[in-house]
Amino acid sequence: MKLFLSVVTLAVSASAFAPATDNAASTVSLTATRRDSFAAFTAAVVAAPSIASAVAGDSPKFSVFGIIGDGKSMSEGAAYGSDQATRVYSPYSVYDARSDKSVFKDTDPAIPPRKKAIIIESRVRLQKIEPYIAKKQWFNVRDELTRYMYSLRDSMVYFATDKETKAASKKFFVSLEKLDISAKQRKGDIAEKARQQCIVDLDAFLKLI
Fold it and tell me: What is the pLDDT of residues 155-170, one digit of tens each?
């Protein structure tokens, strides 16, 4: 892309340095120079896709709907998966849909302990938020909620498989959102109450899994 922009910039700026005189010969020469500049610009636009994919060993290339870019590579969606031999994960994906042949398995015995560990560690993070609220360090509060705890919701949803666990997870999410909003609004008393409620709700959820 940088190479393409450089070519275009040089092509367009070429006419800016052409001498401007009143005689007819100079006018014809200037017109020819502008014509040459336009031709160079057009050539650069046409060559852009090939320039972008010409570096050997560069990162994988994707075409846009099989029309623009590297037409020989798997396109990102192409004509909505029509260029793929098997059914894709989604109309915008080049990867196969999940099946028995998939490398990742939901039944992997290592998944539940890992996700439960995320929930337990998130409880520790909620306890760390208390002094941040007391010191009105709202950026630290929000950092804790979006840093490690970013994966908390996904881990809880994994275990929320029945009516009781789904209700418990939903209750926690409401408390967590209240904590986040009160931190945005810098309302310390409400934030602290929401934080305490988050711990209560999270403990209740942990007892169910």
Answer: 999 999 999 999 999 9
pLDDT in tens, 99-124: 777 767 777 888 999 999 999 999 99
| Distance of alpha carbon 49 from alpha carbon 68, whole angstroms | 7
For the chain, how long is the longest CA-to-CA vector?
92
**pTM for this predicted structure:** 0.55
Nearest to 104 by CA among 94, 91, 93, 89: 89
CB atoms within 10 A of CB 64: 14
φ, ψ of residue 150 in degrees (nearest 5)? -60, -30
- How far apart CA 11 and CA 198 sit, in angstroms, is 61
- For the four alpha carbons of 133, 136, 140 and 145, in that order, the dihedral sign comes to positive
Q: Which residues of the chain have pLDDT under 70?
A: 1-34, 37-86, 88-96, 103
Q: What is the pLDDT of residue 188?
A: 93
Count CA atoms closer than 13 A to 56's CA, side-chain side.
Answer: 0
Nearest to 147 by CA among 172, 117, 121: 121
User: 110-115 long-range contacts, Cβ below 8 Å, gap at least 24?
Assistant: 111/158, 112/158, 112/159, 115/154, 115/155, 115/158, 115/159
- Three-class DSSP category at 59: coil
Q: Would you say 94 and 63 are in contact if contact means Cβ atoms under 8 Å apart?
A: no
